[in-house]
Design a protein that fits this description.
Layout (H helix, E strand, L loop, with lengths): L8 H19 L10 E8 L5 E2 H13 L5 E13 L2 E12 L10 E12 L2 E13 L1 H11 L8
Parallel strand pairs: 1-6
Antiparallel strand pairs: 1-2, 3-4, 4-5, 5-6
């Protein structure tokens, strides 16, 4: 028995646009607006800690001020399945960061485990879990830097 319940093409495109918008904002100094892409009860879980929308808003404001950190996210292997009124997704990612040595190797490789909910005709994140598979130490050091704590350079 398979749990594969594909979404229709229009839903896939809309959710992929949501994912791309999130990463664009993170990569282009607009982290202070990422909280807008979540439902009212949305949460983010991962190396940056567990955050509700208010915590994401505060984190994003701090992150947007740190213009000396350059990062880029690359994604693929997007799997979306219908789960009642929501959609469940797994997105494979590579993150490159200029604070990583060498800069040409990914700082983190892993997956985003996400849930999406349609609110007022628009898909939003209801849950986003960031799961580093490789480079967890670099992800933790980056989280410490963004929180204003010193961490080992990774």
């Amino acid at each position: 028995m398979s749990d594969y319940r594909p979404v229709d093409a229009a839903t896939r495109v809309e959710i992929e646009q949501l994912i791309a918008e999130m990463l664009y904002r993170l990569d282009h100094n607009r982290a202070d607006t990422t909280w807008e892409l979540y439902t009212e009860d949305g949460v983010s879980v991962g190396p940056m800690g567990d955050m509700d929308r208010e915590a994401m808003k505060a984190w994003g404001a701090r992150r947007a001020l740190q213009t000396d950190v350059v990062g880029r996210h690359f994604i693929g292997g997007i799997r979306l399945v219908q789960d009642g009124e929501e959609v469940e997704g797994t997105v494979q990612y590579l993150t490159f960061r200029d604070t990583n040595e060498p800069q040409t190797l990914p700082a983190s490789v892993g997956e985003f485990r996400e849930r999406y909910r349609r609110v007022d005709g628009r898909w939003l994140f209801s849950r986003r879990e960031i799961v580093p598979v490789f480079g967890g130490g670099a992800a933790a050091a980056h989280a410490a830097r963004l929180a204003g704590r010193e961490g080992p350079a990774q």
